[in-house]
Amino acid sequence: MAVRYRIREADPTSALDIQAITDIYNASVIAGGSSADTTPRTFEQRRAWIEAHQSPYAVFVVEAESTDEPSDRRIIAFGALSVFYARAGYDRVTDLAYYIAPEWQRKGVGTFLLGGLLDECRKRHMRKACGIIFADNAGSIALMHRFGFTQFGLMPDAATDSTGTMRDMSYWYLDL
């Protein structure tokens, strides 16, 4: 079965979108290694998070669709363009975040999603995109390199994850 990916803005009124985002995020929280949240988030917390993204910032989902059966479509990843720092001088600088359902990792979804997020950054006239990533997250670090991001900092022992592991944080940016 061949699959194609499609990115679209998440609908904050869609229970399907919110539940998929909640499930994907919580799988990452529980696994550890990609979020500094130490406990899963609720449906309502994720809804509020999506609603907090006001233009030009937004949350997006990636759907996988069977080319054989177009009605067979499911959300397999999500990403966000979030406020980097809530002061006017940082307007149009965005903090990128992205999460992929475990069974869809290492299938090109991250590359597709990050490319789509960067396209959205440019459409929304962002001037810089930033990524804040656990320094041992090899997949995300590889994506940063692939898309030409520059590392601008490393903070040792900055955050713990749900496993209780203390992790270094790496900081990345891309001029748009």
UniProtKB/TrEMBL annotation:
It comes from the Bacteria. GO terms for molecular function: acyltransferase activity, transferring groups other than amino-acyl groups. Signal peptide: none annotated. Keywords: Acyltransferase, Transferase. InterPro entries: Acyl_CoA_acyltransferase, GNAT_dom. Residues 5-176 form the N-acetyltransferase domain. This is GNAT family acetyltransferase.
